[in-house]
Amino acid sequence: MSHADHDVIAAARDGDLIDDVSAFFAPTSTDMVDGLVAGYRQDRARIEAAAAFINGPECAGVLNYFLDGNSDPDRGRTSLSSAATQLFEQAGAVAALNAAYWSKALNLTDVYDAMPQERRNQWNEQIRYPQGRKAARHSSDKDLPPLPDFEEQTVRATLLDLLNSRAKFLAERVDGIFRALSGEHVTNCPEGFGRRMIIARLINGYGNTDSDRVGYINDLRKVIAKFMGRDEPGWNATSSVVDIARRQHRGEWLTLDGGALRLRAYKCGTAHLEVHPDMAWRLNCVLAHLYPLAIPAQFRQRPKKKTKDFVMMGRPLPFRVVEALGGMEEAYLLEKNTGPQAWRQEYLRTKISHGLQLKYGRVDDKALQADIDRVMAYLGGVKTPNGRNGHYYAFDYDARDAVSEVVASGCLPDQKAHQFYPTPENVAAAAIEAAQIGPDHACLEPSAGTGGLADRMPKDRTLCVEISALHCKVLEAKGFSVTCGDFLTMATSLRVDRIVMNPPFSEGRWQAHLEHAAAMLSKDGRLVAILPASAKEKDVLPGWSCEWSRTYDNEFAGTSVSVVILTAVRA
């Protein structure tokens, strides 16, 4: 790898977010290359032998009988004869053989995934037209040369060049993304990546997503993944996300990759992209390396961060987990068929209400399966056995929208950033009992999470406020009235009779949430809050009558915090 390649990577990284480039890519197996070349030579020898036999004297005068006997009387023999003449041309068969083995060679490494979309398009064209192609007379395209024979020296030299070029792919990918931005929209900045970008023509003439155009967005996600030090999406991973955006959330922002990127798609095939300022800065650093005189200095400066600027970032999941979740489908109960038709159908299928399963019931990779189980449990799914060693996930609500939200965003809400620690059942039960909810009381749960407290409150009279879009999907599916946003920005003009809450604790946020909630309580209302045990020694609501529960130690999973329950009424 050249010094220039290392400079491109260095210009794109912040600190140690990106390490040695060689660690990102899989090596090529010498034995596998030898095996492919041997297989190619054997198949080519068979093609040459078949062509020689069919076109030789052994078949002379005999092939016509096959054509006469197998032709369609209504269409005549001519079309079949013409097709047969082309069918057994050796040059076409060898070209197809070359294309098949070059595709296999690319799959030996991860270079196809690592390629920028522009390079991938060139390879796809070459594989599609292995005999080459003349450019149209008035086209700007160049002539496409024939695909070279799959000989060992050529294969090894080509793979080595691709492997050594992977560091350059990062710069090429960033350049390709920038060139793919719509020139018709003034929002796009000609001097570099702005925070808002627009890419057009994502839909082909048949109304489907154009994988080539979507590939540029996928390239952007790959670069961001590099900057974040995480795994990369597969080459076609973004097509399903764009499809979800334009069909299910048309004109709405979808947050991707832990908040580093947002996408908004429209029916016409135009997509708006917003990247985090840190990401835009890194992208411009790469562009500045390629075009040092074209990128203004202000685009190469790291954005200044404000103090106390809390960004609600999600926790990105591995892309292979996201892709597996994209294959979730409605679950069917598999029961052993003991009836008279058991010989024809071993299992009977019955649809399971609010059940989801992987397409084949499970995956063979234990680590991947464990990650999927964790996500499903986070959403409230209970893993349940289901015939032939498979399983499904049982929910008490329709979880399909929540799963789609995870697939679209690629992440779960980060526990630390969102301060999401589900309320244990015994603590939740004690808090609800202290609230003394009557038959006519209007109720509120701020920072509701997935409804650990709200589930015990009257659904038709409870408003949930939640900042996580994913959690809002869960709450809506459960039938709650939901306001999606930061509770602290909610107007205090709302009046409710009962508030039960488990606010975020870090950096004293519980105090701000408590005071904000108290301002929403009606005159004879009651406020119940789960707070850190240290709050018991403080006058948290001056002028209010406060009662404190016993201390609950080590009740919350993932933290050793001790809590108490506050019950407050106006004095």
Could you explain the architecture of this structure?
Helix 19 (509-518) links the parallel strand 14 (496-501) and strand 15 (521-532). The chain folds into four domains: 3-164, no CATH class; 168-316, no CATH class; 319-417, no CATH class; 419-570, Rossmann fold. The N and C termini lie far apart (74 Å). The longest helix is centred in the N-terminal third of the chain and has 26 residues, at 30-55. It has 571 residues and is α+β, with helices and mostly antiparallel strands. The protein is elongated, with a radius of gyration of 31 Å. The strands form four sheets. A seven-stranded mixed β-sheet has the order 13-12-11-14-15-17-16, sandwiched between helices. The chain has helices spanning 3-12, 30-55, 63-70, 78-87, 90-106, 111-114, 117-128, 152-164, 166-180, 211-228, 238-247, 277-290, 319-325, 366-378, 400-409, 415-418, 425-435, 469-478, 509-518, and strands at 196-199, 254-256, 261-265, 271-275, 314-316, 329-336, 347-357, 382-385, 391-394, 411-413, 443-445, 462-466, 481-484, 496-501, 521-532, 544-548, 563-570. The protein contains 19 helices and 17 strands.
